[in-house]
Amino acid sequence: MAQSTVAAAASGLVADMSRDELEQLVAKMIEERDPRDPNLVTLIAFSGDLDRIWPTTILATTAAAGGMDVAVFFTFWGLYSLVKEEKRITGDNWMTKGLSLMNRGSAEHAGLSKLNFGGAGPLMMRKLAKEHGVAMPEDLMAMAQDLDVKLWPCQMTMDLMGLKREDMIDGLDEPAGAATALARMQKSAISLFI
Amino acid sequence: MAQSTVAAAASGLVADMSRDELEQLVAKMIEERDPRDPNLVTLIAFSGDLDRIWPTTILATTAAAGGMDVAVFFTFWGLYSLVKEEKRITGDNWMTKGLSLMNRGSAEHAGLSKLNFGGAGPLMMRKLAKEHGVAMPEDLMAMAQDLDVKLWPCQMTMDLMGLKREDMIDGLDEPAGAATALARMQKSAISLFI
Amino acid sequence: MAQSTVAAAASGLVADMSRDELEQLVAKMIEERDPRDPNLVTLIAFSGDLDRIWPTTILATTAAAGGMDVAVFFTFWGLYSLVKEEKRITGDNWMTKGLSLMNRGSAEHAGLSKLNFGGAGPLMMRKLAKEHGVAMPEDLMAMAQDLDVKLWPCQMTMDLMGLKREDMIDGLDEPAGAATALARMQKSAISLFI
User: Fold this and answer.
1) Is residue C164 classed as helix, strand or coil in its secondary structure?
2) B113-170 pLDDT, tens per residue?
3) Which of B34, B36, B160 sits opposite A128 (nearest CB)?
4) How far is it, in rounded angstroms, from Cα A154 to Cα B175?
């Protein structure tokens, strides 16, 4: 046997490789080839509309409840769904203050992307949801936090819209940028732009 | 040889592994690491607008024609594109009936997300498509069914909007929920939220 | 040793496989199982709105700057963001000419999906971006080209909207179709419909 090992080493054969070594080699090759983790989900919440916050929070909480590791990256209009419910005005100049007036903060006050009718549409949608036992987006957002879904506000668009950390709900993760979102999506089994 | 096999087993070497055993081991390790099937495509059809039903059905039919296994999960406004063409009103109360009036069913009557002009925009778009030999969304939907694309209505939003199975076109798959869509996307090579 | 090799070959054992052969076998099995390249990113730019061109170009340039291989497939309204800035009218009949008037070409003239206010919204957004050192979409588009991001116009929707290659900015890749986009997404680590 000793002789055969020497021969194998000399000739580069796998004959004397242990099963553990083989499995480590294969695992390393798979890892290098595909850094993806089948358990990761990354959602980009671009929209602040009720009808898109809903699928975002439903997918996030359902995946997290199923044991997946979920991160939601809030950017652009989506940021307003993270603003505290009691905040009426955010921003640091007339432009960003105006934006906040037209995008009232928190998922609770989100409008619909169509058939908004000055807020009547969302009220009706919320009433329908209540009648059918469908959770409200703001409740799903709280549930997401309970389920350890990472909520990442986008730093660049926070700056753009004059939103500060204290304007936003507690328990958010550190603001992040596009590079962080991309690195996470590269490893994610599911990445959606909603 | 028999002696060497015993030695290998005792020392945990791979020396006496057969080629088949090796391939099975590697296949199992890859499978565990990545449950994804490169052949699966999952599309979430959130929008009922003509300009989004078009890419959804074009991607679905092109992928299926190329031999891929495609499922389209219709949710929210997207559900209305599954409603039968002859249905004018769906829903079980004034709210869901109103919704159906404003979202006339079937891909054939879908509006545009912008430049709708009370239906003139979609008519023009359809005329342009006809002139250029581009298939209509409702034809692509029928073609998708012929190509065995799975069409899944979302149970939760069907309930919300008071849509029943009999309001919808024939040949749909069983209504499904977010957990089913997520499980499928986890295995899919391509998952898009449209 | 020679005897053992013969025995291994006869019995299908891996005993006499070289390390190189083993690695080639495993690499082939991984490749067959998953044709995906962790370095590929494919974005579908469906929208021509400023607020969506921004994330598209930010994600594309950030990924490319990080060494990833990025392709953006421009379709439908997204095509108008590739039109030359100086072009006021494109199209080959009254319908497509009308479309071009309502979708003024180039990222520089893109409107917002909401709060457009006849162009005041985008102007304000651009002013905010300037104040915060955020690059303009048209600059990001040029940067994307410098970083070798592939920019693919969709052939079918170009025909539909009467857009010709000479209407569009220089340096674009060959127009492509849904099948090309799907084949690329199948191999991509990140595929988003924006």
Assistant:
1) coil
2) 766 666 767 777 788 788 888 888 889 999 999 999 999 999 999 998 889 999 999 9
3) B160
4) 35
> Given the DSSP bridges, would you call strands A150-153 and A69-74 parallel, antiparallel or unpaired?
parallel
To which residue do tokens 């006869």 refer? C10
Q: Is C66 on the interface with A (CB under 8 A)?
A: yes
Chain B, nearest residue to C103 by Cα: B115
Q: Tell whether the model's pLDDT for residue C184 goes beyond 90.
A: yes
Alpha carbon distance, N-terminus to C-terminus of chain C? 61
Contact C29, C2 (CB under 8 A): no
Give the SS3 label for residue C70: strand
Strand partners, A150: A71
| Spatial contact of C71 and C147, defined as CB atoms under 8 Å apart | no
Indicate the pLDDT class of residue A3, thresholds 50, 70 and 90: very low
Nearest to residue A143, comparing CAs of A48, A61, A54? A61
Give the model's confidence band at B8: pLDDT under 50 very low, under 70 low, under 90 confident, else very high.
very low
C29: closest chain B residue by CA: B27
The H or E element that residue C151 is part of is strand C150-153
Q: Say yes or no for a CB contact (<8 Å) between C66 and A30.
A: no
User: What is the Cα–Cα distance from B157 to C175, expressed in whole angstroms?
Assistant: 38
- From chain B, the residues in CB contact with A73 under 8 A are none
Residue C169 has pLDDT above 70, yes or no: yes
User: What number of other Cβ atoms are within 10 A of residue B124's Cβ?
Assistant: 18
CA distances from C64 to A182, A183, A184, B102, C144 (A): 11, 12, 15, 43, 8
Chain B residues within an 8 Å CB radius of A31: 33
Per residue in A59-80, pLDDT (tens digit) is: 999 999 999 999 999 999 999 9
- In the DSSP assignment, the letter for residue C30 is H
Q: Is the pLDDT of residue C91 over 50?
A: yes
Residue B3 is predicted with a pLDDT of: 44
Angle between helices B120-131 and B50-65 (to 10 degrees): 30
Measured distance CA(C130)–CA(C49) in Å, rounded? 18
Maximum C-alpha span of chain B: 85
Contact call for B124 and C12, based on CB within 8 A: no
